[in-house]
Prior knowledge:
The chain is α/β, with parallel strands linked by helices. Helix content is 34%, strand content 20%. The protein contains 16 helices and 21 strands. The strands form 7 sheets. Strands 4-3-2-7-21 form a 5-stranded parallel sheet, with helices on both faces. Strands 9-17-11-12-13 form a 5-stranded parallel sheet. It has a 3-stranded antiparallel sheet with strand order 14-15-16, with no helix packed on it. Helix 6 (87-93) packs antiparallel against helix 8 and helix 14 (286-297) runs parallel beside helix 15 (318-326). It starts with 9 loop residues before the first strand and ends with a helix.
Amino acid sequence: xxxxxxxxxxxxxxxxxxxxxxxxxxxxxxxxxxxxxxxxxxxxxxxxxxxxxxxxxxxxxxxxxxxxxxxxxxxxxxxxxxxxxxxxxxxxxxxxxxxxxxxxxxxxxxxxxxxxxxxxxxxxxxxxxxxxxxxxxxxxxxxxxxxxxxxxxxxxxxxxxxxxxxxxxxxxxxxxxxxxxxxxxxxxxxxxxxxxxxxxxxxxxxxxxxxxxxxxxxxxxxxxxxxxxxxxxxxxxxxxxxxxxxxxxxxxxxxxxxxxxxxxxxxxxxxxxxxxxxxxxxxxxxxxxxxxxxxxxxxxxxxxxxxxxxxxxxxxxxxxxxxxxxxxxxxxxxxxxxxxxxxxxxxxxxxxxxxxxxxxxxxxxxxxxxxxxxxxxxxxxxxxxxxxxxxxxxxxxxxxxxxxxxxxxxxxxxxxxxxxxxxxxxxxxxxxxxxxxxxxxxxxxxxxxxxxxxx
Length: 455
């Protein structure tokens, strides 16, 4: 595809009004009671269930499915939420196809796993619809814990600490709590404001105070939190998107995919969002898939995802890659961005060099060039941890690979400070993994606080 004669074309309202609601409807319609019972009956209720081992939060999957099969969805939800307080969101966004469902005995035997994710959603939705609170707080401990970041890790940690009787204050830079669940997940995966419904459920326990608009390094310091609270948990997430490293990244139309997804998620009217005719997404993870699919759903004519390595190397699962392609996006493998082509301060096209795997699997350019027209180029090549807010008083925090180093209990190198979620080294960058980090850290914090009280 060449650039001659093309004009940058970005506009809102490309589709009839009713089309937006249809396009951004629920990706996986929920199971009804009958279909949930039928699906639950497919489970073998394995004694040494591989699905439990594959779940980062070790939910007792056979148990909750058995509870559904016996007509007790609320009991199933309790089983789920005691291990994963964000089981409702994880049912919607977890890559179950590479976790629990991938190792399901039905998948291995028949190529058709039990629909664990949809069953988990069925149970948690039933409990939410009933408005039932299944947790009670332990007697007040008199201890206060500061949690920085109201994303999955922070809220998971805060909830478990509140259950254990501690008073928790959660500080977050944004107006709404939820982190990436609120601002970073594709709109068609979490409809009807579910992220905030889940936050409301977590906060309904009591003992958790949210202070919005508070960011480390801007009127909030780690040293002050350590002085004011008995323990601190950092669930900071990743604050920056990696650059392409090319001249022209300041051109109009070269956009961080994460920022645009956040804007889309907060839009009251999707028809007001501008979208290009020709959209190019650079990257190979979930963010790349999410922004590509949503660009098509907003009315883009051509959407191409370009990834520097092969299909098997993409962080996005095969299922997600297939989803993008069935929704009309093309995926080009083995190509890396080489040059941004602009005109009058705006992007017009992007030039790529084809790549290959050389000796030892090292990526190398082939010298072959191709060009794609682009009204918009989305950068989706990963996010990085921003440690600026920790400058000075956070100097004692050890970093590993650009993220916070923690031990198995999510303790940092700084006494009295724990961390979890995407900001820590060695993480999986998954909602479910962040929830587990928060839970593990909360249990460790509780143990440390009680030991200190007993000393």
